[in-house]
Design a protein that fits this description.
Length: 201
């Protein structure tokens, strides 16, 4: 009889892939039929459906990565030296972003357009750092499949962003349009130049 960890390992991967597929379909449907109002949604079943699937994906990804270490062994120490700092620093920036943006805005309220601080470098800095944290997790766990889940996470975030941009344009109009032109969706050379200037100032 196989140890329980092998079943956990398989189930976690299936849950991650299944929830990613459902969430991607949910967000894609809203892109095609925005009148459904599936996302963004600040409360109600639409909000809980999107966030529930997202949290299920993230939780299953973490469980899968940890079970990869158990199943495949601890591996070389260098992967922890590289992966853990990336994961911890990126996740820390993500949490700081919640405080900077405000929990209400984070969870789809309209408490004002935020363009300063970390949002001067990217329109979606928390999405960038969350993907980086998952990459760090993949490196630390020595798991190519976890790195693949990080790529899937980016696709999910991209679908979130496409829906959110349309919503923000409706809510903030020209202010958000100007912000779109001035600041990259994720990260590009403008982000690096602004970081360099901020460090040198």
């Amino acid at each position: 009889m196989e140890p329980l960890i092998y079943h956990v390992h398989t189930i976690a991967l299936c849950v991650a892939l299944g929830s990613a597929l459902l969430l991607s379909g949910y967000l894609s449907l809203n892109l095609r039929l925005p009148q459904l109002g599936l996302w963004p949604s600040a409360n109600g079943w639409r909000h809980h459906t999107a966030f529930g699937l997202f949290r299920l994906f993230c939780g299953a990804t973490v469980v899968f990565a940890l079970s990869e270490v158990w199943v495949n062994g601890w591996g070389h120490w260098s992967r922890y030296v590289l992966g853990l700092p990336i994961m911890v620093m990126s996740f820390g920036i993500t949490l700081w972003g919640y405080r900077f943006l405000g929990l209400d805005n984070t969870y789809c309220e309209s408490d004002g357009l935020v363009t300063g601080g970390m949002y001067a470098y990217s329109r979606n800095p928390q999405y960038v750092t969350s993907v980086l944290a998952t990459i760090g997790l993949g490196i630390a766990s020595g798991s190519w499949l976890t790195l693949g889940l990080a790529a899937i996470l980016f696709v999910i975030y991209f679908l979130f962003v496409l829906n959110e941009e349309r919503w923000l344009l409706q809510g903030y109009g020209r202010a958000f349009r100007d912000y779109m032109h001035q600041t990259p969706r994720f990260v590009d050379e403008r982000s690096l130049i602004r970081m360099r200037d901020a460090i040198l100032d």
